[in-house]
């Protein structure tokens, strides 16, 4: 292996490590902000943890951070092998792209975060999606994805949607305005969910097409 190749691999490894650290930093910052707000308002910190894990953005960024951490570290374990499967990484890529698109198209204009909350928002919704797509393109082996991989990738958002509705029913709060049953009603919420899932299908098909194209090259 040439010195240039070694340097390139070394730089790539450092970049992935930085991306993983940035992902965990963004998540910790968001949790800190939620808990601080709850503390200042005299509310339950446990409720703040519940709110933190109620967001699809947070759960998906956790998956991103886990994948990047597995890629940035060595060792052999069943968990690491699972998260480094091209099909798993492809599914995570599709989900984090959905996070970025949904936020920028549907949510960005409905509130105006300031200060550290703005930093957390930008990291979770813009920076990490871009970093992970770049990682997926350059670091994940290509040519392994099949068109049928779309279907298992839909399981995660479907499970999340059910969880969000059940949680919202009991606590009276929903993480996103387009699934607020109390305001919109179940028919509208289900239509919104189908539209989001269709968006994920489109994103997934594009990723698979790119994977197969690059794999053939």
From TrEMBL:
Listed InterPro entries: Pr6Pr-like
Transmembrane regions: 12-35, 55-75, 87-106, 118-138, 150-170, 190-210
Coiled-coil features, chain-numbered ranges: none
UniProt key word Membrane: yes
Keyword ATP-binding among record annotations: no
NCBIfam families linked: Pr6Pr
Keywords: Membrane, Transmembrane, Transmembrane helix
Name the record gives this protein: Pr6Pr family membrane protein
């Amino acid at each position: 292996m040439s010195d240039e190749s070694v340097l390139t691999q070394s730089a790539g490894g450092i970049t992935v490590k930085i991306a993983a650290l940035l992902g965990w930093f963004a998540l910790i910052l968001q949790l800190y902000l939620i808990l601080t707000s709850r503390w200042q308002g005299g509310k339950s910190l446990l409720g703040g943890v519940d709110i933190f894990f109620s967001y699809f953005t947070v759960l998906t960024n956790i998956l991103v951070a886990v994948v990047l951490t597995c890629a940035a570290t060595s060792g052999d374990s069943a968990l690491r092998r699972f998260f480094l499967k091209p099909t798993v990484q492809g599914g995570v890529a599709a989900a984090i792209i959905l996070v970025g698109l949904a936020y920028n198209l549907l949510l960005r204009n409905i509130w105006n975060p300031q200060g550290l909350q703005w930093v957390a928002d930008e990291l979770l919704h813009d920076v990490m999606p871009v970093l992970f797509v770049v990682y997926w393109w350059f670091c994940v082996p290509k040519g392994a994805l099949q068109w049928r991989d779309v279907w298992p990738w839909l399981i995660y958002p479907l499970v999340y949607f059910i969880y969000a509705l059940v949680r919202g029913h009991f606590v009276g709060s929903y993480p996103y305005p387009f699934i607020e049953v109390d305001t919109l009603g179940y028919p509208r919420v289900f239509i919104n969910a189908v539209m989001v899932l269709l968006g994920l299908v489109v994103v997934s098909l594009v990723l698979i097409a790119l994977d197969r194209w690059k794999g053939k090259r």
